[in-house]
Request: fold
Amino acid sequence: MKLLVTGKTGQVATALKRAASNVQNLDVITIGRPEWDLARADIAEGIAAIAPNAIVNAAAYTGVDKAESEPEVARAINATGAGFIAAAAAELGVPVIQISTDYVFDGSKPAPYVETDGVAPLGVYGQSKWLGEEAVRAASRNHAILRTSWIYGPAGTNFLRTMLRLARTHDQISVIDDQVGAPTFAADIGDAIIEVARQLVSNDANDLRGTFHLASSGATTWARFAEAIFELSAEMNGPTARVKRITTSEYPTAARRPANSRLDTSKLERCYGIEMPAWRDGLARCMQQLSQTEDVSPP
Reply:
């Protein structure tokens, strides 16, 4: 299977490239800027030349706060670009997998969100990702939209790496404790995407098309996630810090975040047979990967 992945330097694309080395008959090809402008309609010609069996659109504008001052840029990449990618997939007659986010919800629901819950994004980033979902739905019936949450991994910019970096120079770090979600290891997302792509390519069943939630099982807060990171880092003789639990109101940001980012993944398990690992399990495996790098070592 030839899998074309947009967003070549992102966490999901990196995880997919790594996973491909352990999967037989899987060729992962990543594309992105500056060579490829994903927000141009003529990208379809280049994609057709690659002739993939499926396309994963992992490219995204992810600056949640910066998007508030750059709405046009965020929408060009997250919405317009997503539509062009899906249209290219439709022209080729191949499935498209769109990576979306928990930020399409406002976080006011007291229980985990299911796919049929109404969306109500709080900021430009969430709005742009929702518009991207709609663009994909309009362009191709043969799609799987995967909403995930709190992505982290050994590469790229993410919460885990930020905590370890700050711990080198800070004895105490203030972290929000009233936002709840599931930290999701990029490698687990990559493994799930490969299985989703495999089934989409080999099976025309309607149940495999549509919107699905893809996140680790269990839930925690950002502060408790940080504490878990430092506990494991300490075991590896890496940088640690005390966590001061604070409220969202004590850490104002340009964009509002949902207080509840929990996603119900039972539909993914029912339709695809994919059972996501617990978030603590993913964290332990990620920290093990980092254990031989500068990220988990004494400062």
